[in-house]
Structure formats: structure tokens, C-alpha cells
């Protein structure tokens, strides 16, 4: 580990010396001293701003065809992306591949073309945050507000980067000082729980220092129009809630006690942190966007500020890029079939995930009353979030054409093409499952019709949004109080929180599954509240909360980590992935095994590089690797 940290110093200086505010990013050998960089609020904030830019990893298409989705919810049609290798248990791949890998850095010139990875960049960012914290005493002629803003942001980013690494590798040394080459680098690994609690402690302090709204600060008022995306009290509390929920979850408790169950005390703390964010929403700081704007959180052509940001967004990487390149070389390379602008490398949703969407009447498909679930065309009469998130066979996807080529073709038998399958199925660089992810791919944004929409769209995967806080609250409260009891310190039950999310969703007025969701007419009737059959116990409701979380936060980088922290990955239900088989005329529909992946106890954690864990005894390899 000492070699890792010593290596990071020159890497850190190289990366930061080429940033967009170059005058703030000099090495110690340059003509700028620490006193100059950290002596004024303006320069100090410029140094912190580096943590917002290159230092944050894109959750979708950060490394060419990479995303943060690689659990039972997806599978890839090629063997080299992350969404093939992690599902198939090839975890050593993360140390040998840099092109399609969100975990390791790929540094290029110019630096703006580089790809940032959670492991390398996370350690660099932790060092940068500690460097800022070590130099707060050099700040001069500052107000208390300025000091608080700088310290709060640095604490947040130190916590964020430790959390991002820990959720994949487990317990870490919690690096809370700016390490010099002369320091003792033999830092002992903490347990996973200890690491998460250190994260939460930093966030508690950060939340006390940061503003609810930067526009209401003196510094924010002096820079109107530049505060979108800055770290706030709400972001610190939201991440604290997530870290505590991870600490309270069955995987963590099993590591501590041998029993996979929730930690009641930590659930209470996680719920209270989430509730603080919900109270901010009650005050109008955040709000769930209306159903009509739901898709605009992820793809939008209407921005007047140069980025996507909604009232629901709490923390996200600011992405200014727009236009067709984002479809053909960015996010579209991950989710589009080749015919619509992808490059033939497609991450598809599995039927396992499709089956999580409830019927339009609010039942799991296994519980659906007779006639409530169409077993031949199963995307009919479902939770409306399905067609906002999943692209299905037979949708008219090209507005300027009316022939067969205008429609999505995901069937794999009885077709008119020479191969007997639809043009968007695997043979043409398409789906291996019979479905495509469309959460980030809007109607008309494809290579067949390039117009103003194509040129103006931006895409974003939020790190944290308000809906997650309702879900965190519900999960944690249910474990302590059950589905319907309101805690004495709050004003809503677990089911109240879940129903708040569901009521945002509106049902179609006249469902036509050949129309893209953008053209579908929706009524004022909301998706039903949780059915009473799921409220009989916390164990029964637990399953519905987890299902709701997976559907609402689909393809935002949560499912793999959630399934692990719930300690559910060893089951055959997780390991076996399914694809759909159906003909062009939809006369039948079958679920067929796509593959059965391994998931042993060791797969709950990524391996460290062997050379790293051989440095000293206190830094040990994860079990099984």
C-alpha cells in the first residue's frame, strides 16, 4: 500500500497539472506556492473545483462501452465490456482492461479525453481532499462562511471517494491526512462497517458546514448562475443515509456477526438522515419531478444552462457535452442497437429485470389476478415506468418513416429477414435478451433520423436523487417499525414513503404499446399504492421495497450493489439470467436461460491487485482471491 500511495503523488500532480484552471493546478516545483494556491478563497475554491470535474466517474459510458450496471439486471452481447465480465465472475478483468472499465484510469492527451476510474481516481481524489483540509490554515482574509464552504466540500469528497471504493472492495484504510513520502504508509485495513461509519462521520461534519442552497450564501450570491451542482447540506445528508444503510444491511452484519440480518440501530440512523433530506423536500428545496418530466432527468434537449439538472437531483456529475456524438460514441454505444446508432456493443436488460415491473394494478406478476398479466405480450398493462425505461419490440422509433424499418425489431423467430430474427436482435449488433434499455435514449435520437433533437440532447445518470431518499427511508424504517407504523420522530411510515414515489407515476389514458412513451397520452390516475397483501409483515413488505428500489432506480448503478448488500447473490434466482423468445406476430412468448453465472462467497468483493496486497501484512487480500 505504501507503494500505491507513493505512486499516486506523481500521478496526482500529472493529472491535476493539466486541468481546466491550469493556474491553480501547478506542481510544488512551479512558481505557485501553497500559500498562493490556498491563500485566497477564490484560488482555494478553484482547487476544490477539480474534484467536481475530472475527479468524478461517469456512471454510464464513462469508459467507452462501460456502465455501472453489471448485476442480474443486464448482460452484454460482447465479451470485453464490464457488463459481460462481472456477471460471468471474471473479476480479475478489472485490473487488465482499461478501455471498457469504470474502475481504473485511462489517461490520454488531451486530458479531457481521459477516462476516470473509481479505484485510481478515487485515491487521487482522497489525496486532493486531504491536501485541501491540511491547508485550510493558509486561508487569509476569509469569512467564516468561506471557510465552512471549503471544508465542507473537501470532507464530502473525501467521504464520497472512500465510499465509492469501499462498496466494491470492502473495508479500507480510511486516509484522513495528506500523506507525504516520508510517512508510514503501512495503513491497516478497517472492516467494511468501520469504513462506512468513518464515511458517515465525515458527512455529519460536512452537513453542518454546507448550505442548503448555495444561492442563499454570500459567495453564491456573488456568482449567480454558477452554483448548480455544488455540494450542499442535502447531498451530505443523502450520502450519509446511503452509507449508513449499507452499514446496516445484511451483508455488513454478516461480516460482523455471522448472521445476515439488519442492524436495527444503524437502520434508525440511516432513516433519520434520509428524513432530514425529506424535510428539505417539504420545504421546497427538492421535489419529485412530475411524471411528464420524468425522462428529462436522464436525457433532455431543453437545457438553457448547458447541463441537465432537475429539482429532484441532489448530486450528479455535470456533463455539458451534447449532440450526436453522445449517442454514437457515448451513452448510445452502451444501450442502442447498432441500427439506431450503437457500435454493436449492447448492454441489454435481462428478463429477470423485466419481471420486476408490477402489473398496472400494482401486483407482482406472480400474484397477478387472472387476465391482469398478458403472458404473450408481457409489456402490456404494466407499471408505466417500464416503457419509460425499456424499449420493447414493435415500437415506432423513427418518426420520419412509416415502413417496417421505422419499428423496433426485437423478435427472434418467424421474421422476414434472412436470419429469421429482428434487425435489433443480436445478429445485427443488438439485444441478446429481446429488450433494450431506453432510459437514456429518447425517441427520434438515432442515426436513422438526425435532426435538432439529435444535436441538442444531453444525457446524465444522477448519483443521488430525491426518490432514493424515500426508498432509503422506507427500507430502514420498515426494519425497525414495520410497514405502517410512523416513528415518533417522523411524520410518515415506510409505506407512506413508497406510495409517494408510486403516486408520481401516471397510468396511460389509452395504452398503445407501439407508441414511444413520449407520444403516449397519460391520464391523471396514479399508479396504485402498495397493495394490502404486501403489508402483512416487514418481511413481506421488505421484498416490495427492494422491488420498488430496483424499478425506480433502474440502470443508475444501484442493482449490483443492492443485491450484494442484501446478501442475495448466491441464490440461483440471481445467478441464472434469462432472455425472451417470441415471434414477430407475438403468438407466443418464452423465457429461456441465457447463461448461469458463478457467484461464490468471494464474489461479494472485488480482488485487490496481488502486487498491492504483498506490500505489508496489514493490507490483506479479500477472501477467496
Summarize the structure.
The protein is mainly alpha-helical and 625 residues long.
Largest sheet: 2 strands, antiparallel
CATH-defined fold name of the domain at 1-67 and 102-211: Serine Threonine Protein Phosphatase 5, Tetratricopeptide repeat
Query: What is the correct CATH architecture of the domain at 1-67 and 102-211?
Result: Alpha Horseshoe
Q: DSSP strand (E) fraction?
A: 5-15%
Gyration radius, in Å: 24 Å
Indicate the structural class: mainly alpha
Distance between the termini: 17 Å
Largest sheet, spatial ordering of strands? 1-4
What is the overall pLDDT average?
A: 91
Count the helices. How many? 22
Low-confidence runs: 1-29
- Give the overall silhouette: globular
Tell me how many strands there are.
Answer: 12
Helix content: 25-40%
CATH class category label of the domain at 1-67 and 102-211: Mainly Alpha
